[in-house]
Amino acid sequence: MPFARRRALSSMRVLFVCLGNICRSPTAEGVLRGLIARESFDGIARIDSAGTANYHCGAPPDLRSQRAARARGYDLSALRARQFSDRDFTDFDLILAMDRQNLADIERCAPVADRHKVQLFLAYLPGSSHLEVPDPYYGGVEGFETVLDLCEAAGLGLIAQLRDQTDSTISRRAGSSVPPTTDPKTR
Q1: Are the beta carbons of 38 and 73 closer than 8 angstroms?
Q2: What is the pLDDT of residues 16-55, one digit of tens each?
Q3: Catalytic site residue 135?
Q4: Residues of the chain whose pLDDT is less than 70?
Q5: What are the residues facing 119 on neighbouring strands?
Q6: Which of 48, 93, 99, 135 is catalytic?
Q7: Whether residue 24 lies in the annotated active site
Q8: Extents of the domains making up the chain
Q9: The pLDDT of residue 92
Q10: Fold for domain 9-163?
Q11: Which of 18, 36, 40, 155 is the most buried (most CB within 10 A)?
């Protein structure tokens, strides 16, 4: 999935969005932060998360999300919920929704020029039958583990795609430079 009309890859700004911004999207934010550090990938300059609803503004992620993430080495404790706003279309290059309902809500308020930024996060999970990150809020611990599994896999897929695009951009730049000629007849 190519990124149309975007900043240089080294300054890519990514926003994850779910309903309340206390389970799925902060988990995706924390996981991507951890993965880019682990993978030594510098193609993302800013990562954030938000909710389409204002249920939990200012609250930390759900304790079950924090515990599951901490067990895998991700710290979500400093994150705080906020509501998605129109300004996010300006502030971010890629807006990744956790499910189709949140995708539809974001697309409904997206300016035409910014609709290309809005996608499902699991579009970066190649070969998966999952289209959505399921909301674990009303379930048990296993739901939070599933969210982590999907966020790790899709996060790696996103990094791989960005890395591929960076490599192809570098290759195009290198291939477009024409070395100076040394043949005196062609000078």
Answers
A1: no
A2: 999 999 999 999 999 999 999 999 998 899 999 999 999 9
A3: yes
A4: 1-10, 167-187
A5: 96
A6: 135
A7: yes
A8: 9-163
A9: 98
A10: Rossmann fold (3.40.50)
A11: 18
